[in-house]
Design brief:
The complex is a heterodimer of chains A (118) and B (107). By secondary structure, chain A is mostly beta strands. Chain A is 0% helix and 52% strand. Chain A is built from no helices and eleven strands. In chain A, strands 2, 4, 5, 6, 9, 10 and 11 form a seven-stranded mixed sheet that branches. A four-stranded antiparallel sheet of chain A has the order 1-3-8-7, with no helix packed on it. Chain A is globular. Chain B is mainly beta and 107 residues long. Chain B is 0% helix and 50% strand. Chain B has no helices and eleven strands. In chain B, the strands form two sheets. In chain B, strands 2, 4, 5, 6, 9, 10 and 11 form a seven-stranded mixed sheet that branches. Chain B has a four-stranded antiparallel sheet with strand order 1-3-8-7, with no helix packed on it. In chain B, a hairpin with a 3-residue loop joins β5 and β6. The chains are: A mainly beta (118), B mainly beta (107). Chains A and B meet through β5 and β10 of A and β5 and β10 of B.
Amino acid sequence: QVQLQESGPGLVKPSETLSLTCTVSGGSISSYYWSWIRQPAGKGLEWIGRIYTSGSTNYNPSLKSRVTMSVDTSKNQFSLKLSSVTAADTAVYYCARDRQGYATGDYWGQGTLVTVSS
Amino acid sequence: AIQLTQSPSSLSASVGDRVTITCRASQGISSALAWYQQKPGKAPKLLIYDASSLESGVPSRFSGSGSGTDFTLTISSLQPEDFATYYCQQFNNYPITFGPGTKVDIK
């Protein structure tokens, strides 16, 4: 059974960089797209972007100037960096595996709350 | 970006009811639509992909239909564990976008 687990600081200061890692267990990270999605408290879902195991990426244009995703196949991990954060970036961040052939998350991490505050 | 609207935004229903949620896209997306269920404090769960394909392990009371701009999620007989918020998602064009959600609660 594939499992995903987000990790990283739960508190980030304004203007700093949010860094999260998603560790994949129970299956290989290879040959899949891997996504990041976030959800502010009480609000809907926002797609941040996705990365293939080759390193190819697609980002949401609304965040593109601040987002960097990377993948480490040797560790079965992929990562998200979001720079110059503000309070508007406070949200639960989810990592997900995209179903092969479809950009739909068939396996998700439990989510991690990141608060941007001084 | 493609905008998705969902209706209703919320509904109250009883166990055993047939429930229908609609999702409309601002432009045609073929069948590139998915439906998710989310319960409080939990990650979304994929129910339907490619507009009408049932994800493995999802009960057959869930079904999806539609193509182009208009889509429907139907729960044929609502069960207690189905009270949740439902989101549609399009993946025909980048950026991938989600609908605003439909909350289904107990009447």
